[in-house]
Design goal:
Chain lengths: 118, 244
């Protein structure tokens, strides 16, 4: 439910970067969202389209044609017992040996990766 | 068409303010705990009992002397959607408290805590407790500037919570399993709970307690005291103090 405020942050950051790079039109904004980031990609996209033309920007209409591209990232687990590497599912155990001692990596990403403009 | 590589954290502004909060509070040697849980698992009651127990040197000691030590001074930031009920409960205990209403917002952020600190007498406190909005999802993503993330779960919520809300459990520094007095009345499996917690988080201690009966509180308070001592033995930049 906090995706709208995140979209404002995204638009603000990209707007400033577009201005810095003397781009008057942004066509794509790429963000990376981990599956444990407490952010829903669909809700983020919906919010982006809902407010992209409503926020005050340095160049009016800079986001009119912009679309949000969301890349999701899985949570990776590394079994401490057998060393097996796997994508964490709903079951908190190693699919290979069944052990439940895991080192987790990734999944909390939440960043603007890049954008296209002209 | 130009592609601009940004790699800029969406929560950069929040993280920046959180870092400033952390520096400000560490400068005054205040230990900051971010108390998180679902609604109704007992955060405020645990806080009340903790302040009562640790806030007075007499009450702090159990017959065995566990949890004993000088009285700790608490300051509290209470996060809640709309009401001031929790802050009123803390206020009755005489601890400085500020209520933050998020007006429907699902978590506290670093800016809310910074604003609250301006209205709170926290400089003389040993421990600043920030009670987050009751929610097992969103608060995990917002750094407030805390030293420790303390997660409260209660027996009635069921033992499947670690598997359902892995991030909270993965990032917790301590887990309080509250309402342990209800255990015989439920199908809660402590074994399953521990197994899933340990899969996600090998280090965080689990405290089994009942804020209602007082069971297990002494161990929790004793841990808090040890964390405070640990922090005060360190310089504000986090490096250990050199012993002679």
């Amino acid at each position: 439910m906090h995706e709208l405020s995140l979209v404002y942050e995204i638009l603000r950051t990209v707007d400033a970067a577009a201005r810095e790079n003397q781009l008057s039109r942004v066509t794509r904004v790429g963000v990376v969202v981990g599956k444990m980031s407490s952010v829903l990609p669909d809700s983020l996209t919906f919010s982006f389209d809902a407010v992209k033309n409503e926020v005050p920007t340095w160049t009016p209409g800079v986001f009119t044609e912009a679309r949000l591209e969301v890349e999701t990232r899985d949570v990776e687990a590394h079994c401490r017992l057998c060393g097996h590497l796997f994508v964490l599912g709903p079951d908190l155990a190693c699919p290979k040996c069944g052990a439940a001692t895991l080192d987790l990596a990734g999944g909390t990403e939440l960043y603007i990766d890049s954008f296209d403009g002209e | 068409m130009t592609e601009i590589k940004l790699v800029s954290k969406v929560l950069k502004a929040n993280d920046q303010i959180a870092a400033e909060n952390r520096q400000l509070l560490s400068g005054a040697s205040v230990l900051v705990i971010n108390l998180m849980s679902s609604p109704g698992s007992g955060k405020t009651t645990i806080l009340e009992r903790t302040i009562e127990r640790a806030g007075s040197s007499k009450a702090a000691a159990t017959p065995a002397g566990v949890g004993a030590g000088p009285a700790l001074r608490f300051a509290v930031v209470e996060g809640d959607l709309f009401t001031t009920r929790d802050a009123e409960r803390i206020d009755r205990l005489g601890a400085p408290v500020v209520q933050v209403n998020t007006e429907g917002g699902c978590h506290l952020d670093a800016q809310m805590v910074r604003a609250a600190l301006e209205d709170l007498a926290w400089r003389d406190a040993d421990i600043l407790a920030v009670e987050n909005v009751g929610n097992l999802v969103c608060p995990a993503a917002w750094d407030l500037g805390e030293d420790l993330r303390v997660l409260v779960v209660s027996i009635a919520e069921g033992h499947d919570k670690p598997a359902k809300y892995p991030r909270m459990f993965r990032e917790a520094h301590a887990i309080l399993l509250n309402k342990i007095d209800l255990l015989p009345m439920t199908d809660f499996s402590v074994r399953e709970f521990e197994k899933d917690v340990r899969a996600l988080n090998a280090e965080a201690p689990i405290f089994y307690l009942s804020a209602r009966t007082g069971a297990g509180l002494a161990d929790w308070v004793s841990w808090l005291r040890s964390k405070l001592a640990e922090k005060r033995h360190r310089r504000p930049d986090g490096a250990p103090v050199q012993e002679d």
